[in-house]
Amino acid sequence: MMPYFMNMANKIRIDKYLGEMEIGTRSEVKKMIQNRRVCINEETITNPGYKLTPNEDTVFVDGHEITYQKYVYYMFYKPAGCVSANVDNVHKTVMEYLSDAPGKNLSVIGRLDLDTEGLMLISNDGEFSHSLLSPKKHVSKEYYAIIKGKVDETDCKAFEQGIDIGEDKPCKSAVLNILKSDKQSEVLITITEGKFHQVKRMVAALGKEVIYLKRMKMGRYQLDENLNPGEYRTFTKEEINDVERYKRGII
């Protein structure tokens, strides 16, 4: 399944178009064009500088249609032990799991700790990434956590009031929903910030310890239950529509 894409109104050179679609290197693409292997709207093109309008003009290479996709969007189930980075000398990185995913300059939207599992969004759309990560947007993030220690309503109120984790200001009001309260408790935690190790530090400030953490939601995006750890998929049409809503600030 190929990723959904955004419409583009601006013209682009055919060699740049094919290069961005990873058809080949710049020199390889130029050779394809010069060897009359590229057609635009059923007309053979031999000039690498020829300009076309993506999603209006139709491009073929060796008879196969090449659809332009400026931005790509993926949902990834990050497993524990995976690093939220492009390169690491010790642990497997997110990008290694997406090594066969189409799209250049992919970046993680919102990192997770090494031992934290769950929802991760990946894209090359910087505007979309900013719309989710900007502190001014207050995009919510929900985590499922297993906590060592009994959790009660006092803890819920502390989360609501804002917990001091040793920084200049206490954390913003957060939500702690108790699923199970025992020596080993299960909870859902919703925050609107992204401080370093925030959930673990908030729980530690209450004298308890997070022993398992999994991100379930990020804004309107929810971890696909059909994904296994280490698997990814492209955004659905509905999720792409939400991309536009976030970028326009109407969510």
Beta strand count = 15
User: What gap, in angstroms, lies between the N and C termini?
Assistant: 27 Å
Q: What is the share of helical residues?
A: 10-25%
Binned strand content: 25-35%
Compute the CA-based radius of gyration: 23 Å
Low-confidence stretches: 1-8
Q: Tell me about the biggest sheet?
A: 9 strands, mixed
- Helix/strand-derived class? alpha+beta
Mean pLDDT over the full residue set: 92
Total helices: the number is 7
Describe how the helices and strands are arranged.
Blueprint: E1 12-13, H1 14-20, H2 26-34, E2 38-40, E3 43-44, E4 51-52, E5 59-61, E6 64-65, E7 73-78, H3 94-97, E8 107-109, E9 117-123, H4 126-133, E10 141-148, H5 153-161, E11 175-180, E12 184-191, H6 198-205, E13 209-218, E14 221-222, E15 232-234, H7 237-248
Parallel strand pairs: 9-13
Antiparallel strand pairs: 1-4, 2-3, 2-5, 5-6, 7-9, 7-15, 8-9, 10-12, 10-13, 11-12, 13-14
Plain-language structure description:
The protein is of the alpha+beta class. It has 7 helices and 15 strands. The chain has helices spanning 14-20, 26-34, 94-97, 126-133, 153-161, 198-205, 237-248; strands spanning 12-13, 38-40, 43-44, 51-52, 59-61, 64-65, 73-78, 107-109, 117-123, 141-148, 175-180, 184-191, 209-218, 221-222, 232-234. Strands 7, 8, 9, 10, 11, 12, 13, 14 and 15 form a 9-stranded mixed beta sheet that branches.
Summarize, please:
With 251 residues, the protein is of the alpha+beta class. The protein has helices at residues 14-20, 26-34, 94-97, 126-133, 153-161, 198-205, 237-248, and strands spanning 12-13, 38-40, 43-44, 51-52, 59-61, 64-65, 73-78, 107-109, 117-123, 141-148, 175-180, 184-191, 209-218, 221-222, 232-234.
